[in-house]
Amino acid sequence: MTPPDRHPRKTGNADTTEETTLHLEHGGLHVRQDGPRDAPVLVLIHGSAASSRSWDALVPLLTELHRVVRVDLPGHGRSAEPVGGDYAMPEQGRRIGVALDRLGIEHAVVVGHSSGGYAATALAEQRPDLVTAFALINTGPHMEAFIGPGTGAIDPAQWPPTDEQIRRFASTAFHPGYQIPQVLVDELRGMTYGALAAATLAATAYLGERPLPARLRDLGKPLQVIFGDQDRRWRPSSAADYLVVPGADVALLPGAGHTPILEAPSRTAALLLPFAAQHTAQVPGAT
Predict the structure, then answer these.
(1) Parallel/antiparallel/unpaired status of strands 41-45 and 249-253
(2) DSSP track, 220-278
(3) How far is CA 265 from CA 3, 58, 262, in A?
(4) Torsion over CA of 23, 28, 34 and 37, rounded to 10 degrees?
(5) Inside any domain, residue 286
(6) Whole-number Å distance between alpha carbons of 5 and 46
(7) Among 48, 148, 149, 213, which residue's CB has the most CB atoms within a 10 Å radius?
(8) Residue 66 within any structural domain of the chain
(9) Could you tell me if residue 287 is inside a domain?
């Protein structure tokens, strides 16, 4: 087994932020850990055309009580494109599970933003022992709820895109007037067009096979759904479709768009932390 490349660095408190490239069978997967290593685990999974950096504003609000683990999905951020080009959600879920095994994580509350919720669900479908509960943030429940514009896509002949093209392409992921952080613009430009297209198609295929609420109902895991009520990609009222999952907790964030983890991190954390505390407390051996 090839050892991971570790890049620890100190944060403002006594904990260490550690960035790791795990060498998996079909390519390296970049992982970042923040917070106390003996605390209950929160796993954060970003959406398509993003990276683990999309959680930057939220993570400092979570690390007092949690070990926060972020992954860059294949072909995103600092993770390699998968050998063979398999971006299917079951394969992404499998790779996340292998990464968590390598980190010695046995139980976690898993949080997915946007299509990251599909990877989180695919992980739980394969590893129900590992996932104790879900939180989904602006994750579309089915394709009928999609309201994103059909235009604005970047022509592959113009790849890599300019800042202006990226900001126009990503604009519907935020409420009007939101200034997209430059680091996210740069990371999207660092992707290949093939990775972007394949990841998007994989998310659509997974959702097309079966609506997410039905998958989650069968899994029987505790579920929290957070939705910005100004989402311009998924119909905000579709958040109620998750109520078919017994006990699901559904909340709308007034004024937030598709990405409240950046637009409204404090309000997002205020919803997420009590849910995570409740369900990590139910894990044997958790404190």
Answers:
(1) unpaired
(2) T--EEEEEETT-SSB-GGGGGGGGGSTT-EEEEETT--S-HHHHSHHHHHHHHHHHHHH
(3) 34, 5, 6
(4) -20
(5) no
(6) 22
(7) 48
(8) yes
(9) no
Give φ, ψ of 272 to 5 degrees. -70, -40
Q: What total of structural domains would you count in the chain?
A: 1
Residue whose C-alpha is closest to residue 222's, from 271, 281, 275:
275
CB distance 156 to 276 below 8 Å: no
Domain boundaries, position 271? 5-280
Summarize pLDDT for 114-158 with one digit per residue, the tens: 999 999 999 999 999 999 999 999 999 999 999 987 545 788 988
Task: Find, among 244, 251, 249, the residue nearest to 216 by Cα.
Answer: 244
How far apart, in whole angstroms, are the C-alpha atoms of residue 240 and residue 217?
Answer: 14
For 58, how many CA atoms within 13 A lie in the half-sphere containing its CB?
31
Per-residue pLDDT at 206 exceeds 90 = yes
Q: What is the CATH number of the domain that holds 192?
A: 3.40.50.1820
pLDDT of residue 70: 98
Which of 66-80, 105-119, 268-282 bottoms out in mean pLDDT, i.e. has the lowest? 268-282
Tokens of 32: 């970042």
pLDDT at 6: 41
Does 195 reside within a domain? yes
